[in-house]
Amino acid sequence: xxxxxxxxxxxxxxxxxxxxxxxxxxxxxxxxxxxxxxxxxxxxxxxxxxxxxxxxxxxxxxxxxxxxxxxxxxxxxxxxxxxxxxxxxxxxxxxxxxxxxxxxxxxxxxxx
Amino acid sequence: xxxxxxxxxxxxxxxxxxxxxxxxxxxxxxxxxxxxxxxxxxxxxxxxxxxxxxxxxxxxxxxxxxxxxxxxxxxxxxxxxxxxxxxxxxxxxxxxxxxxxxxxxxxxxxxxxx
Lengths: 112, 114
Prior knowledge:
The complex is a heterodimer.
Chain A: E1 3-5, E2 10-14, E3 19-21, E4 24-26, E5 33-39, E6 46-52, E7 60-61, E8 64-69, E9 74-79, E10 88-95, E11 100-102, E12 106-111
Chain B: E1 5-7, E2 10-13, E3 19-24, E4 31-37, E5 44-50, E6 53-57, E7 64-68, E8 74-78, E9 87-94, E10 104-105, E11 109-113
Parallel strand pairs in B: 2-11
Antiparallel strand pairs in B: 1-3, 3-8, 4-5, 4-9, 5-6, 7-8, 9-10, 9-11
C-alpha cells in the first residue's frame, strides 16, 4: 500500500529563518511524483513544489526547495527566509497513478 | 485562465438526505478528482473522472457517486448521508499525462451533516 508519513504535527519558526518539514513515503513503484501542498486557513490547497522521482536534482521554487532521497524514500521541504504568509498546513503527497496520497499534514507557525 | 471553482462553499444537511456538490475544472483540464478531507486529516481520494468515465476509485462506498459532463465539469453525489460524511470536499483538475499529472485544487465545499 502507498503511504505517506509526516512525523511533525506542528512546527514553528521565527520570521526570516529557515525551517525544514519532513516526509517519508512507501511505494513499490519506480515511476512516481512527489508534491508539497500548502493549505492556509482559506482551505484552498495550493501547490508549492513538485519532484519527479526519476530526477536526481532536487526541485526548487524561489524560497522553497526539497531534499529528495529516493533510496530512503524521504522528501523534505525547506523554506528559507520564512514569511508570515507561509503560515499554513503543509501536506506532502505522492502520486503513482491517478490519485494523490496525502500525509497527515504539518501545521507551520511563523513567529514575528 | 480560470481556476478550479466549486459550489456551494458551505452546506448543512441532515442524516439520511442526499447532496450534490459541483466542480468546474481549470480551463483546458479534462480530468477531475474528488477528495474528502475530515477535520485535522489529510485529503482522502474518492474517485477520478476522465472524459466522462470513472478512472479510479478510492475506498468509499457506492453511495458516493459522480458524473463528468462534456465541458469537463463534475458532480459528486452522496446518498443517505451519515454524520461521518461531515468534511471538506475538494475537487482537483488536471491534464492527463500518465502519473505526471499535477492536480490543481478548488476552494472546497464544507459539508456539515446533522
